[in-house]
Design brief:
Elements lengths: L16 H34 L5 H20 L10 H6 L1 H9 L3 E2 L4 H8 L6 E3 L8 H6 L3 H4 L7 E5 L9 H7 L2 E3 L2 H9 L3 E4 L3 H6 L15 H9 L3 E7 L6 E2 L4 H11 L6 E2 L14 E4 L15 H22 L13
Parallel strand pairs: 1-9, 2-5, 2-6, 3-4, 3-5
Antiparallel strand pairs: 6-9, 7-8
Length: 341
C-alpha cells in the first residue's frame, strides 16, 4: 500500500461511527449486487445447459437473462441520447447518501462560464479528472449539474467506457446517470445535436496510475477531445475534482500485468482499499469540483483541424488545467501539492 511520498491527506472528514457503518454497508451491498448480477448472468445459463432437470426456477431465470441480453443487444441505448433518468441521479437514496458522506459539491462557477452558459444554444466539452480508483464522483456529479448549469439542464452527456454497458446493473447505473458510449461517433453525435459532453480524458490509463495523495492527470497523449472541440467549434471547459485521490490506499500487486491489460483491452482492475480496509467504500475525503473558464479555438479550415492546431490548443489547455489547480488547491487543503501532468 502506497502513499505518495511527502503528501498529506487533504480535507479528510470525520463522520460518526454510525455514518461510516452505513456507508460501508451501502457500498458492500451495491458492489455485491454488481458482482452477483455479472457472474450470475454468465453462470446460470451455462448451468441450465449442462445440468439435466435443474428445475423451473432456473429455467425461468435463464429465460429472463436471455431476454435482458437480447434487449441490451437490440436497444443499444448507450449509442443514443435517451438513457438519462434525472430523478434517479438527483434523488436516489444511495447517491444522496454518498454525496452527503463525501460532502460532495460544485464550487462557485467563474463569471465567464456563467455568462456563456446562459447564451442560447450554448455548448461545451467539459473535461474532469483525476479518474481515481472508481470515478465515483462522475456518478455523483450528475445530480448536481442542473443546479450548476440550469440553462443546459438535461443536455450534458458523459462519455463512459464501452465495457460498462455490458455489465448488468452497472449498465443501468451508467445510463441513468447520464452516460453514453465513449466511442468517437457517439461523441460527435452528441455535439452535432446541440448537446454538451463531459469527459474524463485520462480514462483507464489514469485510473491504473492512481496513487493515494498524488494529484496527477494523464493528459499529454490525450488529444481526442481537443480535436472534437476544433472540429465542432465548441469551447472546452477544464474542471478538477479535489478529494478523488484521497479515497483509497492503492496496491501495486501485479501492477505490470494489470497495466498491460489496460493497454491491450482498455480494462482496468484496480486493487485498492478504502474505509476500514474495504475494497468498495471510499475514505471520507471531501469532494469539491472546480470549473475553469471556457477555452475557445478556431482552425484555418472549418471542421478540419490540423495536427499543429490540435497540439497548440492542447498545450494551452494543459496550462489552463494547471492554473486552475494552483488557484484552488490551498482552499481545498492541498496547498502542499503539485499537479503532475
Amino acid at each position: 500500500l502506497e502513499l505518495a511520498e511527502g503528501k498529506n491527506m487533504a480535507k479528510m472528514l470525520n463522520p460518526s461511527f454510525g455514518k461510516k457503518l452505513a456507508a460501508i454497508s451501502l457500498c458492500t451491498f451495491v458492489y455485491s449486487l454488481f458482482v452477483v448480477a455479472t457472474f450470475g448472468s454468465l453462470l446460470v445459463p451455462i448451468y441450465a445447459l449442462i445440468t439435466p432437470n435443474v428445475g423451473m426456477p432456473v429455467y425461468v431465470l435463464t429465460a429472463l437473462i436471455v431476454l435482458y441480453a437480447g434487449t441490451v443487444a437490440t436497444s443499444r441505448t448507450e449509442l443514443k441520447l435517451h438513457g438519462k433518468w434525472h430523478w434517479f441521479a438527483k434523488h436516489a437514496p444511495n447517491l444522496t447518501f454518498m454525496r452527503d458522506f463525501l460532502e460532495f459539491e460544485i464550487a462557485e462557477l467563474p463569471l465567464k462560464l456563467k455568462q456563456a452558459e446562459k447564451k442560447e444554444g450554448a455548448q461545451f466539452i467539459f473535461t474532469i479528472g483525476p479518474h481515481g480508483v472508481d470515478s465515483l464522483f462522475r456518478v455523483l456529479i450528475e445530480g448536481l449539474l442542473d443546479e450548476a448549469f440550469p440553462t443546459m439542464h438535461g443536455r450534458i452527456y458523459t462519455l463512459a467506457a464501452s465495457v460498462l454497458f455490458y455489465l448488468p446493473l452497472v449498465r443501468e447505473l451508467t445510463l441513468w446517470t447520464g452516460c453514453v458510449d465513449a466511442r468517437r461517433s457517439v461523441a460527435e453525435k452528441v455535439l452535432r445535436t446541440g448537446n454538451s459532453v463531459l469527459v474524463i480524458p485520462g480514462g483507464e490509463a489514469e485510473q491504473i496510475r492512481t496513487l493515494l495523495g498524488e494529484e496527477a492527470l494523464y493528459l499529454r497523449d490525450r488529444k481526442g477531445f481537443i480535436r472534437l472541440a476544433l472540429k465542432f467549434g465548441v469551447p472546452v471547459v477544464p474542471s478538477y475534482c479535489f478529494g478523488v485521490v484521497d479515497t483509497y490506499r492503492v496496491s501495486r500487486v501485479l501492477y505490470g500485468p494489470r497495466q498491460a491489460l489496460v493497454k491491450a483491452l482498455g480494462v482496468c482492475i484496480p486493487i485498492a482499499f478504502g474505509l476500514w480496509g474495504s475494497t468498495g467504500c471510499p475514505l471520507p475525503a471531501k469532494h469539491t469540483v472546480v470549473f475553469g473558464e471556457p477555452l475557445s479555438w478556431t482552425c484555418k479550415v472549418q471542421g478540419e483541424p490540423t495536427r499543429e492546431e490540435i497540439d497548440r490548443a492542447h498545450a494551452e489547455y494543459m496550462v489552463a488545467v494547471e492554473s486552475l489547480f494552483d488557484k484552488h488547491k490551498a482552499a481545498m487543503g492541498a496547498g502542499d501539492r503539485k499537479l503532475v501532468l
